[in-house]
Sequence to fold (669 residues):
Amino acid sequence: MRAFGADAGLSEDDLFGLDVCLTEALTNSIRYGGLNGKSPLTEIACEATARLVRCTVVDAGVAFDPVGATPPPLPPSLAEAGEGGAGIRLIREFSDECTYEWRDGRNVFSFVLQRHGTRAGSPADWIERGADRRVGRNREVFPPLIDAASPVAQDRRSGQDRRANGFISQVRMFRGAPYSAMEPLVADCPRVSIAAGEVWLAPGGRSNDVAIVLRGRLRVHVERPDSRPTFLIDVGHCAGEMQLLDGKPASAFVIADVDSDLLLIPAELLREGMLAIPKVASNLLAILAGRIRRSDRLIAEQVRAALELERLQREIKLAQEIQINMLPVPPLFPGLPQIDCAGFMRAATTVGGDFYDAFGLDAGHVFLTIGDICGKGLPSALFMVRTLTTLWNETSRRRNPQRIVELLNTHLCTNNDSSLFVSLFCGVYDLATHQFTFVNAGHNAPLISIDGEPFRPLQGHASLVAGVSPQAVYRATNVVLKPGSTLVLYTDGVTDAESVNNQWFGEDRLIQTVERARGGSMAELADAVLSAVDVFARGAEQADDVTLLAFRVNT
Amino acid sequence: MKMTIHPLAGDLTVISLEGRLDIEGAQSIDDQFTFATTTKQKRIVVDLAQVGFVASIGIRTLLSSARGQAARGGRMVLARPTDMVRKVLVTAGVDQLMPIFETVELAQGALELS
Fold:
């Protein structure tokens, strides 16, 4: 067109006007041409005289009359500014005369520009070409501006539709690739909508498409669908690209986080069509590099977490050993044949909150105790250690159970921010007088059989658990353990043991068990109780620490 | 068609276009221009000093971006069109929809006030 203008000696302004009219005419041809399946080729003929320029644009598309059509009103606001109308206005403004005809199945649009400026040129420009002026003759002055094979000629959609594919610029993989190259590839890709919570990919699954998020968000879970998501896939990013490249099945869950729209790019199209575009290939490499980095970070985190867990487990094991070492080692009182004593503590978790102990205070007195810290686990275990060490401390100084428990209580009440407490039973047995002086601080009453009588709960003054109130009052009770008497101290882990059908072991069953075992040694009795509880609770998880201390005065 | 972005203080940006905003030109900068003008809230001056020609398709690109930016709470204005280009813009009614300034400074000033 420039060459034509130069030849004709057109002024810049006239050339501009010609440009506008031709461009708008061609835009219309392209928009409305080719819609009917006929060739989209447009033919243009231009002639210039000294006074005017006349052009004719012919195409075989759908009939469209830019002359007769009233241009739509100017939009009143930016938000309402629609699509068309500008072209027609421009043609009307920049041409002095325009005509339209539908002839032989073709649109024939002509316009005339009065030449306003002059430009220095050859004198031949000024010669009026009279006889040569033949409108409609297919004399191509210059080839069509748009090649039929170029994407624009094939772009039959109006501006709104083109905007619908505007997401192309938002897709990470396509960033920087020529729009005209991507658009035809993307235009045929199917789109799906998935609802929040729908699973797009599961481990082991195969997908033939790479999914690009157009709207919404996907989340990726590496371990389980309900674990904390490893990462999110937002608008413009893709899912499924890994398995497309190496052919291996998916290794993670990809789930819609919210209602989402996905663009599905079939594998072959990606590999053969899109990866051939250099920018797409380099974008994909960058995406994969990002994945590898992120994956390395995740692995580093997991290794760190595993090491931390190992360390904690080692510490708990150590605590367990310390705790077990605090409990008495059988046989208890081997040097005192007049009594038989045995016990056990089995923790529900790695470290327990129960304890028992039996030791001599001096040549003629023996101390028995059993206790249950509220709760389980490490804090209770530490409280248990405090309790036991305090008891050892106090029993080294005095023999009065009331004072011992009072002092223990005072000690435990101070510096007890965790509000832990302990129920305990303890007593002092006089080997000579067979007197047993005991204090029950909120603990379940032991079973007693005096001189071979049936077992029953030991009655006595009931006091508050220790560690709660510094004002708590503790009182001791006396009982005579004649030879042949048996005392069974236990914690509620025994009686509260639950079976698979939600029944409790209970005191009655315990009494039955100890009655049956009264003939054997205390070690055998302890074993019998433990076995009975195990059989009863078989299949169910041990909920609480199970502890027992059996004591008999031999005949 | 060429496009250069000059970010200024805050969210103020000058985008200079160079070339012809016709069928080919509009297509060549379409995704870049859309991305630069509509993905974040900004106040944008489009400097048309180096734009020799604007067709209706180019107007559509400008209007659509201006609309997109307005939807984000920002603004887009035009500056320094040549006389012929200004005639095109006025014919199409663009000056009723977005302000056209003589200079980039005037455009900047107006945006800073808004």
Notes: The longest helix of chain A spans residues 278-326. The interface with chain B takes residues 13, 16, 19-20, 23-24, 26-27, 30, 74-79, 81, 83-87, 89-90, 93-94, 145-146, 152, 159, 162-163, 166, 168-170, 179-180 of chain A (CB under 8 Å).
